[in-house]
Amino acid sequence: MKRRSLALLLLLVPGVAAADVPLNGVAIGTTVSAIAQTLGPPADVASGDNGNRFVFADGTTAYADDDGVVLAVETQTGSPRIDIDGTVHAFRIGTYSAARADAELANVAEFSTPTLRSYRLAPRRDLVFAFAPASQRLERVTYGEPGQLARLGLLPGDAASKAVTFRAPRLRRSAGDAAPAGPQTSVYRVSVDRAGSVTDVSVAIASADADGDAELARRLRADRYVPATLDGRPIAATIFVELRH
């Protein structure tokens, strides 16, 4: 089988394989803290049943594992330019059509539904297009590891059907009053055991106020959660919490 390559022509990161720089210069395998150094702190952070989501101000959304390592990247704006098998294609959000994708990318196609197309671009790297149901125009581009894409419901094949049901921890009780919202943004990695108790809090993305970061970490350690479950069984899990102070 011919080796397939993927490269974003908008931004290349030295020392990173081209196949891992698909959207807005965010490399699969980098950390959200490294992204924040370039793009600034995320505008929104959420840990849910489909993974840990970090939304940045430029429209980039990164999905990360429990260590904050990026597994998938998504954009709903712009016109990503991607090199597939040596040919550069421009995929303009809102304009590029499903019919054109079917004609141009048949040699790397994996799965298809009325609104989704997935393409295998490397052994553990898939590209997924989401099209608007009525217009069949491109509205979202996502790239990353198949397991994370399946959790997002973006792979219509075997990977999605074999996924087990995960439920993320839900906050049951906050131990203290939240700090007044301010100009600083911090993101914390919070470990929750199978009983719903917080076992560890660390700063994933620091603000410029180290003392404020430490104080909020202390408060988070006293919170209580409904524990995560895997196929209905309570398990230990990690979530990310964003706070402004």
Provide tags for this entry.
245 residues; TolA/TonB C-terminal domain; 2 domains; 3-stranded antiparallel beta sheet; 15% helix
Provide a brief overview of the structure.
It is built from five helices and 18 strands. The protein has 245 residues and is mainly β.
Spatial order of strands in the largest sheet: 1-2-3-4-10-9-8-7
Helical/strand content category: mainly beta
The largest pleated sheet is described as: 8 strands, antiparallel
Inertia-based shape: globular
Number of domains: 2
Percent helix among the residues? 10-25%
Task: Describe the structure in your own words.
The protein has helices at 32-39, 98-104, 146-151, 158-161, 210-220, and strands at residues 44-48, 51-55, 60-64, 70-75, 81-84, 87-90, 109-112, 116-122, 125-131, 138-144, 166-167, 170-173, 185-192, 198-205, 224-226, 228-230, 233-235, 237-244. Helices cover 15% and strands 38% of the residues. It folds into 2 domains: 18-30 and 69-161, no CATH class; 166-244, TolA/TonB C-terminal domain, CATH 3.30.2420. Strands 1-2-3-4-10-9-8-7 form an 8-stranded antiparallel beta sheet. It has a 3-stranded antiparallel beta sheet with strand order 11-16-17, with no helix packed on it. The chain has a 3-stranded antiparallel beta sheet with strand order 14-13-18. It is built from 5 helices and 18 strands. The chain is mostly beta strands and 245 residues long.
